[in-house]
Q: What sequence folds into this?
């Protein structure tokens, strides 16, 4: 259904992945705020995994283009 443009460079792909993870984290935290009990704890755990992924992508971006 969807394809990733094979012409895209690694930095662009990582930036898009970072933005997608950030959006997923916001959506998960929003849902967790409206949920109680074990389901809330599960959502918070998912949000934490998303955050770890976002941190890893940001580190990869820093290695490609180190901050000044």
A:
């Amino acid at each position: 259904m969807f394809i990733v443009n094979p012409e895209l460079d690694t930095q662009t792909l990582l930036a898009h992945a970072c933005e997608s993870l950030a959006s997923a984290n916001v959506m998960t935290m929003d849902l967790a705020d409206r949920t109680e009990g074990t389901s809330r704890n599960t959502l918070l755990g998912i949000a934490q995994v998303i955050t770890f992924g976002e941190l890893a992508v940001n580190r990869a971006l820093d290695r490609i283009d180190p901050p000044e």
User: Anything to note?
Assistant: The radius of gyration is 15 Å.
